[in-house]
Amino acid sequence: MTRKLVYFLPLLVVAVLLGFFIVGLQRDPRELPSVLLDQPVPEFALPGLPGREPPLTEKADLQGEVVLLNFFGSWCAACLQEHPVLQRIQDEGLVPVHGIAFKDQPDDTLRWLKRHGDPYDRIGYDTTNRIAIEFGITGAPETFVIDKAGVIRHKQIGPITDRIWAETLRPLIEDLNEG
Amino acid sequence: MTHSAPRHRIARASRLARAAGILLAALLAAGAPAGAVEPNEMLDDPALEARAREVSKGLRCVVCQNESIDESNAEMARDMRVLVRDRILAGDSNAEVEQYLVDRYGDYVLLKPPFKPTTYVLWFGPALILLGGAVAAVAYYRRKATGPAGPAPLSPDEEARLHALIGDDEAGPGAGTRTGRDQGGSA
Amino acid sequence: MIPEIGHFALVLGLFVALVQSVVPLVGAQRGNLAMMEVARPASVALFLTIGVAFVALTHSFLVSDFSVSNVYMNSHTDKPLLYKITGVWGNHEGSLLLWILILAVFSLAVAVFGRNLPPMLRARALAVQAMITVGFLLFILFTSNPFERIDPAPLNGRGLNPLLQDPGLAFHPPMLYMGYVGFSMAFSFAIAALIEGRVDAAWARWVRPWTLLAWIFLTLGIALGSWWAYYELGWGGWWYWDPVENASFIPWLSGTALLHSAIVVEKRDTLKSWTILLAIITFSLSLLGTFLVRSGVLTSVHAFATDPTRGVFILLLLAVAVVGSLSLYAWRAPQLKGGGVFAPVSREGTLLLNNVLLSTAAATVLLGTLYPLFADALNLGKVSVGPPFFNAVFVPLMIPMIVVMALGPMLAWKRGDALGAAKRLWLALVAAAAVFAATYVVAGGAWTDVGAAFGMGLGAWLLVATGVEWAERVQLFRTSPANSLKRAVGLPRAAYGMSLAHAGTALLVMGIVGNTAWKAESIQVMAPGDVVEIGGHSYLFEGAETVDGPNYAASRGHFILRDEDGTALARLDPEKRQYTSPPQTTTEAAIHSDGITDYYAVIGDPSPDQGPGAYVTRFYHEPFVPLLWYGALLMGLGGVVSLTDRRHRVGAPTRARARGAAASAGGAVAPTGASARV
Fold first, then answer.
1. Which region among A47-51, B118-122, C442-446 has the lowest average model confidence (pLDDT)?
2. Positions of the region Disordered (chain C) (predicted)?
3. CATH class label, C1-165
4. Considering only CA atoms, which of C661, C636, B123 is closest in space to residue C653?
5. Which of C384, C493, C521, C616 to mutate to probe the B interface, most B CBs <10 Å?
6. Structural domain tally of chain B?
């Protein structure tokens, strides 16, 4: 009898595999969760955009209050989609929105902000991807929620929508503000 | 598009790739590859440069698909290559450079997955599969050695048909040893 | 109008395929010959409908009918004729249509040439084949209609990716599909045999040619893809362990195992349920490859047409095919009784070992390819599995494989004499040791050269052993030359096929090992007049110019390759091309090959800050790469030669019988058959 069961083995293996595929189909293999969660913000040194104040130049600029740190660039199409949402968040006044423009020339960034509006408090920039690597991100937009102690508490990959803001980010920030 | 890789060309290339869609439409996500490392990225010291190449070959380009940063033309890969060289110049060992990126991107960035509990299945898997195959083969030989009597011989009719089909200098696998219809009779 | 005809033909084909998958099966169950015979005209009709659809799509491409969305997306009026045609399958929808066409061609071949098959087996196999076709027709009609129109029609198309506008890649997909789909024949025969409850030597003999045919195409298809990557991608690599490559390599591994286990079924009437399982698994792996490539569950360097609905559909198709066939297997396979008993040390024993190793290799590559998916699904975190893993686990499996590959053909069936065989292989052992020592010394005698020298020795071992085995068969030097010649002529083609394929494997091993160990590269900026030395050869840069091609502009560099003595060997003129539709850059490497080593030059971007006329240049010293292509060609050739063996011929049984009688009269000895009777 046990010998007959051996013949079911291939079926069993395949059933397990199919199960994995069903799960796999619902996931995006390219989405990379941050390993920096609950880690302190990495040290960095950036220039501010020429002629625009205030600049985001170092880690200390982010500390002392809960902040949103948004990575963007004038080359980034999805950032444009997120742009009005960031503006609304800024207008709401719950949390300061800082920005880092990466892989971007300061002139391009400034032109882009002039054209589409400027929802940011502090802005720093990097003409390379170095700052993006420092924060372990793979593209734009990505947004970090950083608590008062300068610890990363959440990362949003892709544009923030009104829904994500209302359902995920705002409650989190309110919690962090109380804590 | 919900999330842009930091370069226009990538988005365009992936669209092209969708349109192109052929096996081995390789490396499109990063544009046309042609050996990625550029002379202006390279270190002057050949020994350090060789180390940088070695480390780069084991690091995954995080905006590409399954390419090492050494092979990828994506700007992100280029900047990671430069970073690797900067770390090496700053005195990091190869392992320290890798750890630097693992701290930021996780094990995902390593093309050779680290050996740890979550990858035991991966690393021990091949040996276990081979062991399973060996056990099955041994079981097969044992069963054969003590196995039941030989199968029923062919009916003359079947015999004739087999000869007609194969029929030539070879009597096939020896007329007496082949199986007829299964003996259980459930067919 | 013509696209609509094509679309209609596909729908019609679906109905034909439905009829073909039901009626013959019922007929076989009831013993109704008339119903069984429906399968043959149905196969012809199915082929005609799919053929019409394929011709219709090709026509749309040829006349650049941009009202057809598929043509608009993948073609352009400026495109050379060849690439208009290959553009038909240079996309998801069209390649699927090609896939179905090949399925239909295989059905047709069985219907036309399978006259010697028992009617019941043929009816069932064709019905199963039609079921697969139904699945794919549903897939194409519901998710990937190649005849979809757009209104208004655009003025011109988006063009075919220039990387794909290459003869190597134009024929790579059809070859692969012939391989994948060819394994469907083994699958259909396996299912038919399971329904019938009977697997015997005759079954194996019918299945082997189809499997062999599929294997030849898959082998050459993979080699073609590898060759294309080597010369077109511009950095001298030929294998990446990329998920999409693995998707074709895994069925190749299990198909190779199937090829060998089917021999045991044919000669010794044993390993039957295992062979049936391999037949099912091999085709299932082909389907799995399709799923992996087109569903986007894995990230791959080969960005493909990924679409979730398609993914779900293929998964469904895969699930039905695999779960259905393996359930049938679990139910029926225990009733298949094995025949011949054999000792572990015997021809069968080595073939079984070959199967264990090849199956383990296939499972290992599958595990590595899918592990990122497993880890993600179980929330173990994102991991990458790249070349370092595959090399680390694959190579150790191949070493015993190669060692035994040389021994196997020397052993007798049932019970062999390993020591005796090893003694007869003394020459191979000596050659292996000599090659090992010579390579080790020439390479410089460093610690790190031991592995590479061992690999080269292993290749020599297999190559010489294969020669020795042939020499023994023809009794070279042991009998008169005339007698040896007579024996050589009389050897069955299948024996030559094996020798060629094994020799090809030996070359492949040496190519892989040698290139991996001693490849060298040099990247720099060069001004005209500069010389770079690499691998003992020098490259003189004469300068670069801008040239215009039919649908691209290029910068073309001029190099002179010289050997150690300063003798000019070749002019190398690599290009970097900028295509306009679609806009993309490609690298056209210039390669000079002396038959053992390739000298590979690439021109990059201009670098004016480094001096006037300066360019980035790359050189790759690629020793032993040609051995890879010789090896793959020899393997394919071995398959073809074996296929022409009288005993494998699929058609014309009467003729074969007549000639068979003549051959036996002439005293031809079929060595395998002869020893089977020992």
1. C442-446
2. 655-678
3. mainly alpha
4. C661
5. C384
6. 2
Shortest Cα–Cα distance, B47 to chain A (Å):
24
**pTM confidence score:** 0.87
Structural domains in chain A, CATH included, are 35-178 (3.40.30.10)
Is residue C60 predicted with pLDDT exceeding 60?
A: yes
Q: In this structure, are B69 and B106 located in the same domain?
A: yes
ipTM: 0.86
3-state SS string over chain B?
Answer: CCCECCCHHHHHHHHHHHHHCCCCCCCHHHCCCCCCCCHHHCCCCHHHHHHHHHHHHCEECCCCCCCECCCCCCHHHHHHHHHHHHHHHCCCCHHHHHHHHHHHHCHHHECCCCCCHHHHHHHHHHHHHHHHHHHHHHHHHHHHHCCCCCCCCCCHHHHHHHHHHHCCCCCCCCHHHCCCCCCCCCC
Closest to A140 (Cα-Cα) out of A90, A85, A101: A101
Asked, as a colleague might, if the bond just before C528 is cis with ω within 30 of 0, I would say no
CB-CB neighbors (< 8 A) of B171 in chain C: 677
| B49 token code pair | 């440069």
B60 with B69: CB under 8 angstroms? yes
What are the chain B neighbours of A129 within 8 Å (beta carbons)?
A: 6, 75-76, 79-80
Strand partners, C571: C560
pLDDT at site C101: 95
Proportion of chain B above pLDDT 70, given as a percent: 58
In this predicted structure, the answer to whether residue C594 has a pLDDT above a threshold of 70 is yes
Distance separating alpha carbons of residues C192 and C279, to the nearest angstrom: 12
pLDDT tens across A14-46, in order? Answer: 999 999 888 887 776 666 777 888 889 988 898
pLDDT band at B71 (very low <50, low <70, confident <90, very high): confident
Between chains, do C340 and B179 touch, taking CB under 8 Å as contact?
no
Instruction: Test A32 with B106 for CB contact under 8 angstroms.
Output: yes
Size of interface A-C (CB pairs under 8 A): 67
- Provide the shortest C-alpha distance from residue C326 to chain A (in Å): 6
Rounded mean pLDDT, C661-666: 36
Query: Using only C-alpha atoms, what is the Rg of chain B?
Result: 29
Q: Are residues B29 and B97 in the same domain?
A: yes
Strand order in the sheet with A97-102: A123-126, A97-102, A67-72, A142-146, A152-157
For residue B164, the enclosing domain spans 118-174
H-helix or E-strand spanning residue C41: helix C39-62
Q: Which chains touch C (3 or more CB pairs under 8 A)?
A: A, B
Q: How far is residue C370's CA from residue C468's CA, in Å, rounded to a whole number?
A: 41
Q: Do A18 and C329 touch (CB under 8 A)?
A: no
The residue with greater pLDDT, C52 or C644, is C52
* Phi, psi dihedral angles at B90 (to 5 degrees): -75, 0
Residues 6+ apart with CB under 8 A from B187: B181, C196, C197, C198, C335
C-alpha dist (Å) from residue C526 to B41, C531, C544, C558, C569: 15, 8, 11, 12, 20
Contact yes or no for B105 and A73 at CB 8 A: no
Picking from B3, B83, B104, the nearest residue to A139 by CB comes out as B3
A68 phi, psi to nearest 5 deg: -100, 135
| pLDDT-based confidence at residue B5 (cuts at 50, 70, 90) | low
Q: Which of C85, C74, C223, C184 is nearest to B24 (CA)?
A: C223
Q: Is residue B1 part of a domain?
A: no
Domain CATH number, residue B89:
1.10.8.640
Residues B161 and B91 grouped into a single domain? no
CA distances from A116 to A82, B1, C73, C584 (A): 11, 19, 33, 31
Q: Considering Cα of C203, then C206, then C207, then C212, what sign does the dihedral take?
A: positive
C215: which residues sit within 8 A by CB, 6+ positions away? C179, C182, C252, C255, C256, C259, C639
Amino acid at B72: S
